[in-house]
Sequence to fold (663 residues):
Amino acid sequence: MKITQLALLTALMCGSALAVQGPSQTDLNNADSATDSWLMSNKGYMGQRYSPLSQINASNVANLKRVCTFDTGDDGSFQVTPQIYRGVAFVSAGNRSYAIDATTCKVLWKNVYKSTGPEVLNTTRGFAIADGVLYRGTGDSHLIAIDAGTGKTLWDKKVNDSSSGYFTSSAPVAWNGMIFIGEAGADWGVKAKMYAYDAKTGTQKWNFDMIPTGDQAGADSWEKADSTATGGGSMWTSYTMDVDKGLIYVSVGNPAPDFASQYRPGANLYTDSVVVLDAATGKLSHYYQQIPNDNKDYDTAAAPVLYDIDGTKHIAVATKAGYLFGYNESDKTQTFKVATIKVMNQEKNPTAAGLPICPNYSAGTQWSGPAFKPGANMLVVNTVDWCGTVKLGEVRLIKGQLFFGGAMQLNPASEAIGNTIGYDGATGKELWRYKSPGVRIVGGVTTTGGNLVFSGDADGNMYALDSSNGKVLFKSNIDKAPIGGGVSTYTVGGKQYVAVAAGNTSKGLNGVKNVTSRVAIFTLP
Amino acid sequence: MKVLPSLLTALLFSTTLIAHAATTAPAPASYLKAPFTKAQAAAGAKTYKASCAMCHGDKLNNGGAPKLAGDAFLKKWASNTLDDFHYIMSTTMPQTAPGSLKPEQYLAITTYILQVNGVKPGKTEFKAADLKKYNFKK
Fold:
């Protein structure tokens, strides 16, 4: 009580900025089931993207009305889910971070990061929030801490050298005074690591090599030791945790050079894998590799989801190769592997003449992973059916440039089919499928206690499906802004709201005629 | 057993490297001296407008994608030959259909980029063999 009053008083005195005290570790531990917040990019540590809220439900969602829009005025990539704490929505877009009122879209503060090194890509997937501080990565591979109440930068640490292709696009995760983040940049020939930093000081606590060398376990999966220097293995999106066991689940992307696998014979651990680390020490617990010696840029990019079935913990992860994998965490076995879309020629090697393949590297499941609906034991995943041709080419490393060893051509975008699919979380059996021919679906999926599945497509349509059968119950176009971010839902003053991040899904795929990135907030009238 | 073929490739590979080093041409000259014709740059400009401008901007430095003209661009590429630049451009661009243009189109775009970066056209055409002869140093 005292703290809130003090904060209010400070806010009144300063005119606007509200001193933010939390969320505490207890708040973070409860984030998966919270209804008044959306604390992490995938809501909580388990990454289920599920809100128990049911004010907005299958019977009234058709009445949803947009109450406000916050336009960032910029058309860069926008791949965040609005993160909500105490009635404030936090969003990041490129070098900018914003706090906006989660019911009126009024801007409370804006933080602009100034890069000191070259920006590889300034894609950002959001924040970690803890104890009044936001943490995020940057296009020049830094980790920065921002005061959640004022937007002032508190500290700024360089993680790695962006002139060699390193950057930090993922939304970090905060736990017990530590901030976890890894590097992206495999396609530029980096050798990626996962890190833990001290939340207060920004001092590095541990790091873990995703490309093992020397006497590290897994080093023998690189038969040519030299090829590890540019081995790749990006961390693109965010992280999942089992806080009971203190484990962090890390999705690791493709090996490099992307298409020239003969340059790096072996299974290439820990690329295209989910790596499970002891969060306190950074030591390897176990891992699951989805593709050994990948040569099609088929990252395991989106974070896995952790869920419980009959008292046993499971994880599911969806990949760019268009597969959904299930694993049983008690005996560490694979429970299912299902193709979510058409798959073709994945087992064949790229050729100089060109090998037609499905999907292409911009399809399958990209940066948004499966959501889970407890009770129904249902996974819901977005995936794009879209083919292409992969060509083997010269391997030439030019510092800071793409290191492909070939090229991938995409079939016409009009052939892409977006999908939102419900699966049984125990067996991987398909339950229903919503399809959008000609329109990609790459945004985040959200499930709710109101029997709804929220998501959005690349034509700017936000939609709500009936989670029991995938039927469309509501659709609203967000000013033609392609939806590459996610939907969050939360209450403010006891009333349920829905916020969606819509904007350019990816610098590469949309060209310049983009609608600027925006957050749209909805509620029932 | 599995390691053998790769060792062999490595050996072969290093021999080629040595052979290559032995026959390397003189150090590359400044891009400012690269020859190309007005017609080549004009053809490059046309292809650029159709296939690249939507991302890199009509002035080559005003789209969302990396700048292809100006001081920052020249500094970034200073230690590379035009061949390195051409290799990246022709194998990764345009982004949705890398390598889909004809070889002469990629060459023409290269000359257009040189022109926008202040190089004057002349009477001699720019040829593929010229790529390795010039770098991005002033």
Remarks:
- The domain at 28-135 of chain B is CATH 1.10.760.10 (Cytochrome Bc1 Complex; Chain D, domain 2).
- Chain B touches chain A at residues 2-3, 6, 9-10, 54-55, 57, 63-65, 76, 80, 84, 87-88, 91-92, 95-100 (CB under 8 Å).
